[in-house]
């Protein structure tokens, strides 16, 4: 603890107007009832390759007074943005990245961002926009001649941004309006924003910081639209003036409902000329004779490949949901173990985490959190292999399958996370409405996960297209090579032939049975989606219309089920890996797996009741869930303790690890602005009350 | 429009750096497809007794530059609090209330608050705390001698607050720690806050404003705890000094995640002596001989009656959820009718409200909004009769039944509202993340509805106790007089004998059938809850434990079903009443009723599939929902236009009634702080990039 902080604490203690607060051992008592667990093994298994980065970054944060959520809560937008730049400057140089290091192991880059996001998504994203979205786009779509820009980016000689979204277009990138017209006379591109809605919008780092950007624009060569291409261009002078360049307008998008530390901005071009080399020309080029050529013939596919740089962003976004859940659950579980309200007919009040209802609200989300993390470790873990494939053959099956997994998992985790944070906020009651709980900030950060890196209900349709294509292939008798689609059954009779048998929770909690149920659900939903699509085709104006009609209740549900299928398998792998290292942990983790998968089944009871389940199955499923929550509740407090970042990183007064929540709340409130002062507007109040001064 | 505003607009237009924005007729075009409706009849039916108050208050707001969300978004907590006091001072005196007016028609008070809440929940609540929670508590629990305080309150000679919740106790009011010890020697009460957790907490108006409060405290007389009683006491001098009184500590609870305009504060007492008349002594008194007596013998019941003053608050809270939904849906529907993204294989991009998925996200919430509003009009509408009953016999069946309805409806509407606002935020995509969309502010306001006036998952248990008590009576052969419980079937065989028949959407969309299905669901859930309770009793330490074990999946669900049953009937009454006035409107409203009730059935498919429904019923239910959404979509834009407050009151750039969302967004952003300025922290940025000045 810094001397300053210590002094502040002592001072606030001295002037406190509250009665003395005795030590509250509620959290200790609750923890004691849990199983003794090997924290190191849990942390190493859970954080995987990020483990050491986390320790390093948290150490920097702990030693630096720049990291303090309480101070940030009261800061203006402008000051907060400065603060984050300062925070980046404190962390980034100590953990140097460069092209070669990242090429060797891309995970290092994500590992750096991960603990930063634990502190604040805005902090991580402020850097991510630059070293992932900007830098990866140049790396993936550029060629050898752009290497210098990549190096400059890793050295922060340039600060980059990623200008894809426009005011008028987000999800439909193919229809963006910004144009880049090739002028053969000078071998330049002329960038233009022909309409107000073509303004690049929400572009992180553009409001105040970036001097560079990668611009997505419709390329016109020979007066023909060649589809969306990407150009790396300067927008501000890279000198002490920081002036916006002639032909460019940049501004700040203003106040947001969260993530105020990110300076999202807009960009407009007016006949802004950039040299030929601004084109990231790996897939498309214009010859010195002025002829356009591209190795990807299909314009739509080309647009798809242009946004491949979003892969890193989407993985971070998936991680982000898991992180927000981890923070939210740490706060909510600790608070609920301390907070006492009501009790038995006799005796003292009980911690609210004693109540089944409260357990049911939180513990299943802890299981979901493990499911997301496992998926990041396993299905999304070998990103190096994916990036190699992407370089070799961006249209191959493995690349498409990776996109399908990532799209579905990004979306499912964003919905899990948003619902979880809302539950955490609500279910800790009024004290969760205080800024000092941090639940509001974390929920507002989480909120955007559903929107950015692809609006979830649109993005997940990419998964749907992949899956239905595979099934159609299978129907045609072709062999399915996609490694995640071994579940697929083409014959509906075979699907319907499945008759699970369980007459008790014990019989239900069987690995094989559960995996079969998960398979069944996915198969049934996919078949129903396909039928719905066929049915819709008959009364639609075109295939797009039919597709849209098949989304509600069908394709969307099937795609979510695919994401959950992936997560169920990945979490099981996690359980097995950790069991090999530590049996006690393995037993606990197995219960989370059961809770996750049976929870998935419970949310889909309607599907199962169509042919398989009756009322007594429903009862058994719910009994299992409730019993698992009850069995896991004390262990869950220990587990979240092991996985939660230090108090300073969470910054929640009601989620402090020592359980002194009331003490911390009072201390914080007493240190707040103007806590005991009269209102500045007393004269107005007196006037209204008719009191003469 | 004020001259100032006009000048600002012209100025901003002159300096805009954006391309000219042509008029966007998307919203007009979308509206045109809807049915021509009688706006007056719709407004009068929907707003009922509030209709004229709304017009009056909106007129004041429109004429006064004090009402401007854009300006408020950038204000500090302190300034915002002043602003709201100023706003209250602008509205309240023009619509004078006093004891007699309120006595004659309590709805007038709520009618004043309602349009204020349309502008900002914080504005309404800032006044509500004073004229509902504080004033009603004195009115309901005090006697003739307290009348002067009530008059002073209506004249704002005092500013009051409602000090029930403590740092350590919210839902469990019976266990609050503040004590009021009767001292017969001086015939005074001595108020004390024995612990830090006994600090009154979150008390609206206490942070800066209030000079008075009603304090909930454990009354000790003759050294015996007589349970929770309420005392009206001064906390600050009612003079120009505004000093806190000796023996009292008041402070500000600090930053919140929303509602920053409310100065929530804390109160501590240290041997604070107040005269005997501070006791609100309608139900309990201490005789001049020093003997405690009370007309309500049971201590628990007494505590229940003490919080009867919350009735007005809970009705406002129910209204609040409906209002937040109305604002959110106005923004989301208009935006989605304007925003175009994707389209058919050929042709232009289509409004996103064209897509079934987007329709399914919003239209069912519009139906829910009507259901809440109908319930406020009918089941909760005769509050005057309720207040008379409460005065005559606070323990009678009608009072208990009203509480059961209100508790369930407050909770159900809070969950509807929170989910709806989250959906609105998410489903308008990135532009919804801008502060200028107002969706963040409205959602953060809505968020607290689940928590205040009784944490919803705790409060709804009051309904559960009422319902199960009635069933138990019925089992014993007693006649059930509760007027909302005509659905009740005691014989499970009779319930199970119900065999609905429908083989198409058309057959399903039958009033009698749907009401039977809604009855069936409620009966089945109640029976299952009772069984669960019996089963739990067998393996629980006491009845409280058994009760808690019966909450998840059972009692909670039954109580929600009761609230939805009430709403389904009230909405049907609304449909019939409006049909009598206007058949076109009646036809549209009937569709909302179908959508509401079939939506309720859809969310409960698991219940219906236990014995009644098979896969084809599920399909029919969902087809009906989707078809109704499709049929209602254009009308819904017209309907929300009629019910949405003026643009100034909503303040959303993406929800403007003229549909010029991009224009408004750009104008607003260009007027934001520092939009085109360089960062104040440029030196830091240059340092990081290694650029010398």
UniProtKB/TrEMBL annotation, chains A, B:
The active site is at residue 453. InterPro entries: ACOX_C_alpha1, Acyl-CoA_Oxase/DH_mid-dom, Acyl-CoA_Oxase/DH_mid-dom_sf, Acyl-CoA_oxidase, Acyl-CoA_oxidase_C, AcylCo_DH-like_C, AcylCoA_DH/oxidase_NM_dom_sf. One of its GO terms (biological process) is lipid homeostasis. The keyword Repressor does not apply. Residues 514-682 form the Acyl-CoA oxidase C-terminal domain. Keywords: FAD, Fatty acid metabolism, Flavoprotein, Lipid metabolism, Oxidoreductase, Peroxisome. Residues 309-468 form the Acyl-CoA oxidase C-alpha1 domain. FAD binds at residues 165, 204. Residues 161-271 form the Acyl-CoA oxidase/dehydrogenase middle domain. Its cofactor is FAD. GO terms for molecular function: acyl-CoA oxidase activity; FAD binding; fatty acid binding. Belongs to the acyl-CoA oxidase family. This is Acyl-coenzyme A oxidase. It comes from Blepharisma stoltei.
């Amino acid at each position: 603890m810094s001397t300053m902080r210590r002094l502040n604490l002592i001072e606030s203690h001295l002037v406190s107007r509250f009665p003395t607060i005795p030590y509250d051992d509620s959290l200790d008592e609750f923890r004691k009832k849990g199983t003794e667990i090997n924290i190191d093994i849990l942390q190493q298994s859970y954080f995987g390759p990020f483990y050491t980065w986390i320790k390093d970054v948290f150490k920097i944060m702990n030693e630096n007074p720049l990291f303090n959520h309480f101070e940030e809560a009261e800061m203006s937008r402008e000051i907060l943005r400065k603060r984050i730049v300062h925070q980046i400057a404190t962390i980034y140089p100590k953990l140097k990245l460069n092209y070669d290091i990242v090429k060797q192991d891309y995970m290092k880059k994500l590992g750096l961002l991960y603990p930063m996001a634990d502190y604040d998504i805005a902090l991580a994203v402020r850097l991510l926009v630059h070293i992932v979205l900007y830098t990866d786009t140049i790396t993936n779509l550029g060629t050898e001649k752009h290497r210098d820009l990549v190096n400059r980016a890793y050295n922060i000689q340039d600060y980059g941004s990623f200008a894809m979204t426009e005011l008028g277009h987000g999800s439909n990138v193919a229809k963006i309006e910004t144009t880049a017209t090739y002028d053969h006379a000078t071998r330049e591109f002329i960038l233009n924003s022909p309409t107000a809605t073509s303004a690049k919008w929400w572009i992180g780092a553009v409001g105040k910081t970036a001097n560079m950007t990668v611009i997505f624009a419709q390329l016109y060569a020979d007066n023909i639209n060649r589809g969306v291409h990407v150009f790396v261009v300067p927008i501000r002078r890279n000198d002490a003036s920081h002036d916006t360049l002639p032909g460019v307008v940049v501004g700040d998008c203003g106040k947001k409902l969260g993530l105020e530390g990110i300076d999202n901005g807009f960009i407009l071009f007016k006949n802004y000329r950039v040299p030929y080399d601004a084109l990231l020309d790996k897939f498309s080029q214009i010859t010195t004779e002025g002829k356009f050529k591209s190795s990807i013939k299909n314009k739509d596919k080309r647009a798809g490949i242009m946004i491949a740089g979003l892969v890193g962003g989407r993985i971070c976004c998936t991680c982000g949901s898991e992180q927000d859940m981890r923070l939210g659950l740490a706060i909510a579980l600790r608070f609920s173990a301390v907070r006492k309200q009501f009790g038995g007919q006799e005796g003292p009040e009980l911690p609210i985490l004693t109540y089944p209802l409260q357990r049911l609200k939180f513990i299943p989300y802890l299981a979901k959190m493990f499911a997301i993390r496992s998926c990041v470790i396993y299905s999304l873990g070998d990103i190096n292999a994916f990036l190699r494939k992407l370089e070799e053959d961006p249209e191959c099956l493995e690349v498409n399958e990776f996109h399908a997994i990532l799209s579905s998992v990004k979306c499912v985790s964003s919905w899990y996370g948003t619902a979880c944070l809302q539950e955490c906020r609500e279910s800790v009651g009024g004290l969760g409405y205080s800024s000092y709980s941090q639940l509001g900030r974390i929920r507002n950060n989480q909120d955007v996960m559903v929107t950015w890196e692809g609006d979830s209900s649109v993005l997940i349709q990419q998964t749907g297209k992949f899956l239905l294509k595979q099934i159609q292939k299978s129907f045609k008798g072709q062999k399915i090579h996609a490694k995640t689609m071994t579940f697929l059954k083409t014959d509906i009779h075979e699907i319907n032939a499945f008759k699970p048998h369980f007459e008790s929770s014990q019989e239900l909690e069987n690995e094989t049975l559960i995996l079969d149920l998960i398979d069944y659900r996915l198969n049934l939903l996919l078949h129903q989606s396909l039928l719905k699509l066929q049915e819709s085709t008959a009364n639609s104006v075109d295939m797009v219309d039919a597709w849209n009609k098949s989304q509600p209740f069908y394709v969307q549900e099937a795609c979510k089920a695919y994401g959950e299928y992936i997560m169920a398998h990945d979490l099981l792998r996690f359980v097995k890996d950790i069991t090999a290292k530590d049996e006690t942990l393995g037993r606990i983790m197995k219960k989370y797996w059961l809770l996750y998968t049976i929870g998935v089944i419970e949310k889909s009871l309607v599907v199962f009741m169509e042919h398989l389940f009756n009322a007594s199955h429903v009862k058994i499923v719910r009994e299992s869930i409730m019993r698992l929550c009850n069995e896991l509740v004390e262990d869950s407090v220990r587990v979240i303790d092991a996985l939660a970042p230090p108090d300073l990183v969470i910054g929640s007064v009601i989620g402090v690890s020592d359980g002194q929540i009331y003490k911390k709340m009072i201390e914080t409130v007493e240190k707040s602005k103007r806590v005991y002062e009269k209102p500045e507007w007393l004269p107005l109040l007196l006037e209204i009350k008719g009191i003469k001064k």
